Batch of 3 targets.
Target 1
Amino acid sequence: MNIVVYCSAQDELDEKYQQLATALGQWIGKNSHSLVYGGVKSGLMHVTAQAVHEAGGHCVGVIPEMFLHRLDPLCDDVVATIDLADRKQRMIAMGDVFVVLPGGIGTLDEWMSTLAVMCIGDEDRRPIIVANLDDIYDSTIQQLADMTRTPFARGKNLTRTLVATTATDLITTLNTFTSH
């Protein structure tokens, strides 16, 4: 199963964020799933890939040509893309489950782009699991909840976003979708 992980490429993050990424990566590797991620050797991207690699898992880096100089050597497979928009499309197409770890604008963009694709067709039931450590995504989660009560979103597939607040919650939620 391909687990797409959206997360920060920022280095020197607090240890609690690194521990979350490590727990996720260990779970992916130990359960013989593949990590699909942004493919750069920095931040939570690299931390997750390192844990997957150490647990014997498979890492697929989907990386824009302009970032190839930052390619993570832990990638078992590399999918080079034209740009960030192409990367998102490829990652969405490859994913069976999506995990959103703490990150910035790029991570939020990937989450919303994935959700938008899922809202187009009611048949898309792939889950998006958001690791809301330190309530970093509270406002976004609330905005999504508010939108379900409007005539614009009509609740379509916004419920595909599941929230986990700890590494244990994240793994428990992942187990419910990957045990089938």
Target 2
Amino acid sequence: MHYEWTIEALKHKKPVLCEKPLAPSQQQAAEMFAAAKENGVCLMEAFAYLQSPYVKAVAEEIQKGSIGGVRYMHVHFLTSDYDRSNIRMRRETLGGSMYDIGVYASSLILRLLGESPEQIQAVAAFDDHDIDKLTTVMLEYPDAVRAVLTTGMVMATEKNKSSDSFEIQGTEGTLRSDNFTFNGKGELSYHVERFDGTSEYKTVAVPNNYMLEIEQFGRCVAEGEPPVVTETISIANARLVDSVLECIGY
């Protein structure tokens, strides 16, 4: 329903903060942004975690070369299984792990590596309702840089539990998430371990990401501030998801 009602709101000159994933496909996402431009109003995809100062801090570590050039990145995001009445568990409402939580992992890779992959390979395990319950994706970049994401709704049913982690290997060291959850708040940390033997744990104070998201979107509307979750990231992520779903036969 995102595509239809976002465009309807944009036509009525209403700025839209649209829940992730923005649209079922890159084509629809592009049409939504085109409608925003045509009507002169702001559209932003609601990835609250991308507003986090933790994500910004990790990105800055990569950009300043704390672990050298990136060679490999892995993101792991698993959640509880759900009852069959949940929209996440039905094909007709675009259920499955890639659409629901895989988009977190893929958008984090895009945010930190800063470009789209050249090649994508993926495999998935489907349940008897024809949704992907567990999906693994391999992304290949220029110069033999690679990234892998694993996402699934495979933990204990209706326990509201998750397992969130990432690791980035560089030419001079490794950066690993320590105390981290997507959309987590509080004191979140990561570990930088360099091949020269130095090691550092760093902690970032993170307020409520949804608060940060609303405040930032307000500034976009009232002051013309550029969205943190850019059109470029949203379109690239939708394109990546399209490729993954094609690979796994969704």
Target 3
Amino acid sequence: MPYTEAQKRSHIHEIQSYLYTLATQDARIPTVIPDGIYGPETVRAVQAFQKIYSLPVTGEVDRPTWDAIVAAYRKQTAQPEALSIFPSAGYVLREGDSGTLVYIVQAMLNDIGSRYDNLAPVKVTGSFSAATTNAIRGVQQVAGLPQTGAVNRETWNWMVAALNL
């Protein structure tokens, strides 16, 4: 499926929003108004961010720059630790499991997936399917966690935090 102009503008708006928030706490980053247009103001903000975070100063948002901006934004906007309702520290939810917790995980995946174009939606069935495993791997990749496809407490907590953005 081709990358549409609407998707491009949405991603530009998203990164501009993160940069805008970061600029409110760091005067070295020029303020950019999120408008979905990758103009000179956005280039300057990205370059400033790249310089501060010791990234190659290109003014372009490649994967390392995107990940660094998102990480800095999350750190700056971190919420209090989420209430942990995951069964226990050693519990792991995996393919073949079923029940209420799987329903919750699948619903969380779909909500998180609405914010990341590269995370495919899953059917909310309550059965941990191969599609659920693949979606969990995608979340784990975005989160920088080991890509096991299973939900442990660390994956669960990242998903809960992602829902609070």
